[in-house]
Amino acid sequence: MMAEKKYVGALDQGTTSTRFILFNREGEIVCSSQAEHRQLYPKAGLVEHDPQEIWEKTCHVIDKTLREGGVDAEEIASIGITNQRETTVVWDRRTGKPCHNAIVWQDTRTGEMCRQLAKGGDLNCYRDKTGLPLATYFSGPKVRWILDKYPEAYKAAKDGEVVFGTIDTWLLWNLTGGSAKGVHVTDPSNAGRTLLMGISSLQWDEEMLKVMDIPRAMLPEIRPSSDPDLYGYTDPGGPFGRRIPISGILGDQQAALFGQTCFSEGEAKSTYGTGSFLIMNTGETPVPSGHGLLTTVGYKIGDKPAVYALEGSIAVAGSLVQWFRDNFGLIKESAEIEALANTVEDNGGIYFVPAFSGLFAPYWKSNARGIIIGLTHYINKGHVARAILEATAFQTREILEAMEKDSGTRLKELKVDGGMTANELLMQFQADILDVPVIRPRVTETTSLGAAYAAGLATGFWKGTEELREHWKIDKEWVPGMSVQKREAFLGGWRKAVSRTFDWLD
To answer: Helix (H, G, I), strand (E, B), or coil: what is residue 365?
Structure first.
């Protein structure tokens, strides 16, 4: 007798850790486990992970979740995968061994390569085709770097014996049997971050493959993010010990968009973590950005048209609080910054622009550097703490302004998730400075939830997106209460402060 299907599993492979979570039909967490992996820094600017270690941690968290939750794998209807995007693995299909450590999305070794690939020095020369600028962030140049370093791998790649995948593909391949019978597949939300996929065609683009000299035979098949035809089944010899359908794949930020049920055009979410990532659903047509944002695939459900999104990122958000904690010693735990900031009524006229590595969207000035400005004798540590929190809210406002200009859609509310949403002062200021409600859901593990939703939709565990909307519940809502005059004064001060960071480096 077959066991009742009670759960959908989400494998969430992030930059610093891997977790496995089981969700029930109401979209609630039943049990989970998490394990960190090493961050490897061979030289300044280089960031790597060990793909084998990531696979071992994956097996560990799956086993631990099932054991501690008392769950039989037969009770799992399907599995979804979400992953750190752009991180690149190249491996030998016959042995399952990586040719090199995974090159992580933060890695900057391909900077000179990107400059050489830019036609006429224009890093945006392929933006119409891919939705992206030439940048070290994306996977394609990382693949090219590995093939340049290992010429024998390049020859084998032409024969399809050496293959490429982002972390979703690497895990899927291992889960479905690895070198024996592993499935080599990705989805458009990940493929669209390689600089190799046509943003409209959702296929590998022949021109981009020629530009980067990457053999087509080494690339995974691009399938829907939620696939009723299934990518494959878990290998019974693997960590589940059973054949379970794998039917959902989404890059982490798109998974959070999906988990926040942002299924309508103009809906947006912001994830507040080490950095902050904002994505707005722009509907079924890719929207080119004139304000430095990324045009990306949000998700694709089965044979329905792809849903596109605009994305902007803030490099320094939660990491600014950590920097303040570690470098100044005024707080012992990051969470203490809220109490310190609440010792004052406002920022006292100071602004903190954390352009530690330059300014990202919408300015894109790599020679800017961070400043604290507006200091007087009146300023104390509480004002500095408040200015640090406000910096994230101001940056969020600027990216959402750019999104509204690009999309022509006015934001009605912002759904939020991530660790910083526990900071009530920040969330209230965010609502005030955006002049729209800011809403935190009851289940804040929205990335994992999005992967589970994609997998469960594909196998009929959930019937449709409307059912998912019904499961989405508000935990807390912050409503704007700031006057127009005060908001404009704050924004004027912030913009003036940002302008003072320009061209600090010659």
So the answer is: strand
